[in-house]
Amino acid sequence: MANMIKLTINNMPVEVPEGTTILDAAKKLKFKIPTLCNHPDLCVAGNCRICVVEQKGSRTLTASCCTPVAEAMEIQTNSLKVRKARKDIVELLLSEHNMDCTKCYKNCICELQAIAREYISESDRFIDVSIRKPIDKSSPAIQKDDSKCIKCQRCVRTCEELQHVGAFSMAHKGDKANVETFLDLPMNDVVCTNCGQCINRCPTGALTERHYIDEVWEALADPTKHVVVQTAPAVRVALGEALGFEPGHRVTGQMVTALKRMGFDKIFDTNFTADLTIIEEGHELLYRLKAALKDKQKTALPMMTSCSPGWIKYLEHEFPDLIDHLSTCKSPQQMFGAVAKTYYAQKADVNPANMIVVSVMPCTAKKFEAQRKEMNSSGYQDVDYVITTRELALMIQQAGIDFTSLEETTCDSLLGKHSGAAVIFGATGGVMEAALRTAYEVITGREVPFKNLEIMPVRGMDGVKQASIKIEGCLPDWKFLEGAELKLAIAHGLTNARTLMKEVNKGTANFHFIEIMACPGGCLGGGGQPMPTNLEIRKKRMEAIYAEDRDLSIRKSHDNPEIKKIYEEFLKEPLGHKSHELLHTHYTKRQKY
Fold first, then answer.
1. Sheet holding 74-76: strands in order across?
2. Using one digit for the tens of pLDDT, what is the confidence trace for 320-333?
């Protein structure tokens, strides 16, 4: 047990474990110390110094975020000396920040703006040294505005620590110091996975998603366009955070109602094609197992999931020789676009040339994915516009909709019904669990041998999880799997993915199936989700996702009646000709730079 340290903060006694920072000790007493460079997901940096406090006996002020407590320490968090220093620091930060706040996408949710409001200054002591150069809009997913960067380096640490990509680093010194990409190349020309985790941790408007709000409003206002929308599973457990609800509150029905009021012609659910993904991906896994174990053919095992576009691009750059291990299935977003502009267009008698497919996603990398050249199997760009959870929240506010008072309604039929297995796609381990619910039943004719269909070994926030399931009582076509132990691995966050991929590269990864999600916690921690984000918030979103699964009457993808219908009427069979044409794809080997 850790030694306990006694100290006083603002003349109030507190006792905390040894190693606790002054910042965290103050939180225990409900004293808020402002921070900018500090973030609970990242290592301590102590760059911005806005968190300084006065320590009795110390000649200088102390950075509370990186200073551990000591016995009998006496701290003042809001003395005149502290307030004057913070005011000076805020003014210095503002001198290198382009203050066109009213035109900024992060207006009212900017951390620098919030602190500046607390330390109001009417003086203009420091000259403007903000970097003025064109905003980098080269990426379809991420926009970089150096004039708003305050050099806190959260993005640098995020990209290196959480994702092990290193797309950013500090360059130059003095008033020319700046966060830059390799050789200051455009965002679209470096190893950026478009995951958007840097956006989620940037305290200002220096990094934002490329937003397509105006384009969507224009499409909705065009009477010649048939505009349909799909919403991802993780959106419904986070959207409320931006619209007046606590983290972890499910707003599925209110979200559908809001979309109807905004004028979309049809409101569908990405969960429908998540179920479709499970049918296709589950059968692909079984096909590979059969080829390897029964037919003794060389095949790429372990098979790896392909639902996360940030993960896909990371593999294309960092481990291109492992591309064959990826499932050939498109992500649920892209499957939806393909079937919307073919199957649905035929059923609704709509010319796909006049159809606009809008996706609401928790993920900025989906914006990049929608524009990949491979994603046009319908004969058109399958998905036209991708907006994030944050963008949808802003559009609801722009529409003047009182979200908290909305009644609940349901999605339209044909591409709207889904199972609980599809909902859990939003959490790390969810794709694996959903696939097992179907694959095990295909092999044995029985449900997975876990209470209430909940496969607990694949759940949770551990960075890398391993599990196995023994297959017993196989149906005749699958007797070669009798007694086999299906070995599984799950990772979320690209640093954890790298660990697994190194094992696969060395041939020491003794797995049959691997699920990778680029973002911490899976899609529920995506780069397009409401801010702030931290482990506690992600856990609440995860609990909400599993609660939604439990509340649904259909909890296995293969039991979804609309999935059965699309195979009967259109696709015919899993991995069939039509499925390969519309629902499967290939990926590209990319250079590092």
1. 12-17, 4-9, 74-76, 52-55, 62-63
2. 999 999 999 999 99
Q: Which of 528, 500, 505 is nearest to 516 (CA)?
A: 500
Average pLDDT over residues 480-489: 96
Confidence of residue 354 (pLDDT cuts 50, 70, 90): very high
Task: Tell whether the model's pLDDT for residue 462 goes beyond 70.
Answer: yes
Whole-angstrom Cα distance, residue 49 to residue 61?
A: 9
Give the start-end residues of each E strand in 291-333. 303-304
Amino acid at 108: C
**What pairing do the DSSP bridges indicate for beta strands 464-470 and 485-492?**
antiparallel
Percentage of residues of the chain with pLDDT beyond 90: 95
**H helices within 197-251, ranges in order?**
197-201, 213-221
Question: What pLDDT does residue 593 have?
Answer: 62
CA distance 431 to 276: 12
Long-range contacts of 408-411 (CB under 8 A, 24+ apart): 408/252, 408/253, 408/254, 408/256, 408/257, 409/253, 409/256, 409/257, 409/260, 410/253, 410/256, 411/256, 411/267, 411/268, 411/269
Domains and CATH numbers, the chain: 4-92 (3.10.20.740), 105-209 (3.30.70.20), 283-328+421-528+553-583 (3.40.950.10)
Please compute the mean of the pLDDT values over residues 340-365 and round it to a whole number: 98
Distances (CA, A) of 185 to 163, 181, 189, 333: 20, 6, 6, 30
Query: Does residue 574 contact residue 442 with C-beta atoms inside 8 Å?
Result: no
Query: What number is the average pLDDT over the span 159-176?
Result: 93
Q: What is the mean pLDDT of residues 167-172?
A: 95
Phi, psi of 324 (to 5 degrees): -60, -20
- Residue (of 34, 75, 73, 33) closest to 54 by Cα position: 75
Question: Closest Cα to residue 282, out of 437, 419, 415, 420?
Answer: 437
Question: Three-state DSSP class for 526?
Answer: coil
Is pTM beyond 0.90? Reply is: yes
**What local confidence, expressed as pLDDT, does residue 406 receive?**
97
pLDDT-derived band of residue 12, with 50, 70 and 90 as boundaries?
very high
Residues 6 or more apart from 143 whose CB is under 8 A from it?
135, 136, 137, 207, 208, 209, 210
**How do beta strands 226-231 and 266-269 pair?**
parallel
Look at residues 552, 20, 42, 2 and name the one whose alpha carbon lies nearest to residue 271. Answer: 552
How many Å apart are CA 60 and CA 150, to the nearest integer? 23
Q: How far is CA 31 from CA 109, 514, 541, in A?
A: 21, 44, 27
Q: Is the pLDDT of residue 301 over 90?
A: yes
Tell me the C-alpha distance between 36 and 154, whole Å: 9
Q: Are 560 and 418 in contact (CB under 8 A)?
A: yes
Query: Model confidence over 91-124: pLDDT tens digits?
Result: 999 999 998 899 999 999 999 999 999 988 776 7
Rg, C-alpha atoms of the chain? 25
- How many CB atoms sit inside 10 A of residue 297's CB? 10
- Reduced to 3 states (helix: H, G, I; strand: E, B; else coil), residue 538 is helix
Q: Inform me whether the pLDDT recorded for 592 exceeds 90.
A: no
Q: Which residues are catalytic?
A: 281, 284, 307, 327, 366, 369, 374, 523
Q: How far is CA 317 from the centre of its chain?
A: 20
